[in-house]
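Sample pair:
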Amino acid sequence: MSSLPHKIMTMVEKLHDKGYHDIYLYCGLAPSGLNWRFIIGKISDGVWPSNHGRLVAGSVRDSGEVEWSDDTSSVDKLADDFERFYGLSKEGIDPNCLEYVKWYSNALKGLEENRVLVFYADYRAPHAHLLDDAPLYQ
């Protein structure tokens, strides 16, 4: 069974597959190292992460709750509930976001099994270097 952080990462990829190319995920570890923190938003003014485009920020462990869904049992359920809860729209999505989608997909493919993306932490974050080439990263 996948952990909730892994399901959230995969949910973002699922949303990309549904055509929501402007959805981004910025994630890392809390200072304790126990909680995986995340921000999910819409690429705004050609950059991410952005306070202007932020949809949700949270902190979870292997299991738990999220704001947009009472059921975290599957990636499909998380994605469907996210789409509905935040009223996502495909209108006005910047075509430059496709580069981000490709980068994000490759970042996930590069992970070892059962690992999660960690872009920031109180120590050397294992995936911080990926941001060096991230399209539209601010």
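The radius of gyration is 14 Å.
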